[in-house]
Amino acid sequence: MQHSAGVSVSTGAGPALQRLIRQSIARNGGWLPFDRFMALALYAPGLGYYTNAGRKFGMLPQTGSDFITAPELSPLFGAALARQVAQALAASGTNEVWEFGAGSGALAAQLLGALGDSVERYTIVDLSGVLRERQQQRLAAFGLKARWVDELPAELSGVIVGNEVLDAMPVQLLRFDGTQWYERGVALDGDAFVWSERPTPRPPPDDTDFPPGALTETHAQAEAFIATLAERLQRGAAFFIDYGFPRAEYRHPQRLEGTLMCHRAHQADTNPLVDVGQKDITAHVDFTGIALAAQDAGFDVVGYTTQAHFLINCGIVELLKGADVATSANTQKLLMEHEMGELFKVIALAKGCDERFGHEAIGFVHGDRTHTL
Ligand SMILES: C[S@@+](CC[C@H](N)C(=O)[O-])C[C@H]1O[C@@H](n2cnc3c(N)ncnc32)[C@H](O)[C@@H]1O
């Protein structure tokens, strides 16, 4: 086992979470693989970043928020996505929407508002009890149409959406020293969390030629999640929006340090071992991995494009007419290349839909990049 220098002491709030993680490390022989550390840091009941009472989403750090997401930024995000969802509902002959990781409920409110009677039931699945309460307050006006479930039923039909949910799923960290692969995990130095690596027989499952020193993530949980959806979805489509790239770009030498990132008070940093439970931990999405997992499990990959292309294809420019100045400025951020327009992507998956949907999904008519996956 290799311990790395640069020990980070966990300070501040969240001592109960840190105690819980220390116990978990001790029970696991003094070392936790990073994905298990990340799962606890984000989702330990009542204590993790997404399960504690912190504000999380918002425009400004002064409000106690940490980051902003597309539906929080502009209601036109949901209004545009609704047009794609409406087409997919018609193509699959269903009237149900399923949302994973609904955050504050902003996207659900936008979709329910725009889709009206074409949706009979809107089901939210979220790992966070505290966010579920927030969502319930936000969506009270929609009455029984909105509901929450703890786990997916064995069979479901409808249209699935998830904004920035794949990036919030725990990742494994792997490092190559030129000859051997190591799995990076977390150990203790006194009470402090420290990086610690163990040789692993499981290198990243792709043929990238990694240079010595490369650190990267693998996304077993996100890929298993997609495979489960494919197995259970009888008829319908799924749209996931997130930051990330096709694998060739993901593994580009530019990203030798990987993509793991933390967000707190609208600042980004790369150290998840400090202020545990008080900041978000994410990794960019490997969209090739998602597409392969989807395809292997029975989904058709219907489209993959940038957020800007997708929203423009869905008619966001038309929706902008008549918007007030603030909405207009915020919507531009969703589209601009140096803001969210290029880094964020949309992937569309379908199963049991009208065959034409595969060629005519409205969000992908221009600028489809499925061939890059
Ligand atoms: C970055 S937030 C995005 C929230 C919201 N979609 C938005 O765009 O504002 C991630 C959300 O995903 C949820 N989440 C993470 N993993 C999940 C999973 N496996 N199933 C359901 N929800 C999950 C978190 O609790 C949180 O609500």
Can you offer a commentary on this structure?
The protein is an alpha/beta fold and 373 residues long. It contains 14 helices and 19 strands. The strands form four sheets. Strands 5, 6, 7, 8, 13, 17, 18 and 19 form an eight-stranded mixed sheet that branches. Strands 1, 2, 9, 10, 11 and 12 form a six-stranded antiparallel sheet that branches. Strand 6, helix 6 and strand 7 form a beta-alpha-beta unit. Helix 4 packs across helix 5 (106-115) and helix 7 (220-232) runs parallel beside helix 9. It is globular and about 55 Å long. The two termini are 35 Å apart. S-adenosylmethionine (SAM) binds next to helix 3 and helix 5. S-adenosylmethionine binds next to helix 3 and helix 5.
Compact overview of the structure:
33% of the residues lie in helices and 26% in strands.
| Quaternary structure classification | single chain
List low-confidence stretches. 1-13
CA radius of gyration: 21 Å
Number of beta-strand segments: 19
Percent of residues in helices comes to 25-40%
Estimated structural class: alpha/beta
Topology:
Blueprint: E1 2-3, H1 15-27, E2 32-33, H2 34-43, E3 56-57, E4 65-67, H3 70-73, H4 75-92, E5 96-100, H5 106-115, E6 121-125, H6 129-138, E7 146-148, E8 156-163, E9 172-176, E10 181-189, E11 192-199, E12 215-218, H7 220-232, E13 233-245, H8 247-250, E14 261-264, E15 267-269, E16 280-282, E17 285-286, H9 287-296, E18 300-306, H10 307-313, H11 316-320, H12 325-335, H13 337-341, E19 344-351, H14 357-360
Parallel strand pairs: 3-4, 5-6, 5-8, 6-7, 8-13, 13-17
Antiparallel strand pairs: 1-11, 2-10, 9-10, 9-12, 10-11, 13-19, 14-15, 14-16, 18-19
Helix pairs in contact: 4-5, 7-9
Bound molecules: S-adenosylmethionine.
S-adenosylmethionine (SAM) is lined by residues 50, 57, 69, 71-72, 100-103, 106-107, 125-128, 131, 163-165, 168-169, 225.
